[in-house]
Amino acid sequence: MFTRVLKYCPACLGEDITNNKYYSHERFMSQKGLPHSLCNECNTVFLNPAPSEDELNAFYISHHTEEAVDEIVKSGAMRVLEKGRREYFDEHRVKPLFKYIQSNAKVFDVGCGVGAFVYAMKQAGFNAMGCDLSAVSVSAGREVLKLDAGSLSQGDVYSIPNEKYELVTLWTVIEHLLEPEKYLTYIKNNHLNGNGYVLVEFPTTDIIDV
Ligand SMILES: [Zn+2]
Question: 17: CA distance to ligand 1 center in Å?
């Protein structure tokens, strides 16, 4: 289905890789049977062959018809408000940041979906905002989480307002980018205050059915 064959690991550039180690199964925004390689040096699992830019765009368009995801996204936004989930967010995503940034710090969340992290950070007193490519996600976040246009905007990963932040976060976003290194350099050069941080979360193989 995809044509860009990778000879080395996209994370560590190591060449000791095992091809066809895992295959994806059917799930939301994915497709069954896509082969993944394992890097024997850093344990990164990656789609291989990977999509070209055109193939990636075509894939997202075919899997992301706004009507099809509308209900899923809206119920996802509702779950953000559930007590258990809010406590989980506070414990695992918000509180660990207290030792790195001040309570009124400016925070930007790239690819924020419905804005769950933006919402939690605002509740905790941070000056938080985010963007997401999905119009459905942005509209659900505004409607359900009451995030205004200044806090939640629609746009790709390069649509960050022309400002600098104490923290820029990418929660399971980096693996969607074709040129992750170039993107992180862009963040560092354009959107970080002198002592600012970038937080990058990677998905793990815990979510893969072997
Ligand atoms: Zn590697």
Answer: 8
207: CA distance to ligand 1 center in Å?
Answer: 19
d(CA 135, ligand 1 centre) in Å = 34
The pair of three-digit structure tokens given for residue 29, joined into one six-digit string: 């925004």
CA torsion, ordered 85, 91, 96, 101, to nearest 10 deg: 70
pTM listed for this prediction? 0.84
Domain limits for position 39: 17-63
**pLDDT of 8-48, one tens digit each?**
998 889 999 999 999 988 776 678 899 999 999 999 999 99
Tell me whether residue 135 is in a domain. yes
Cis peptide before 49 (omega within 30 of 0): yes
Same domain, 107 and 172: yes
Distance 51 CA to ligand 1 centre (A): 19
How far, in Å, from the CA of 91 to the mean position of ligand 1? Answer: 30
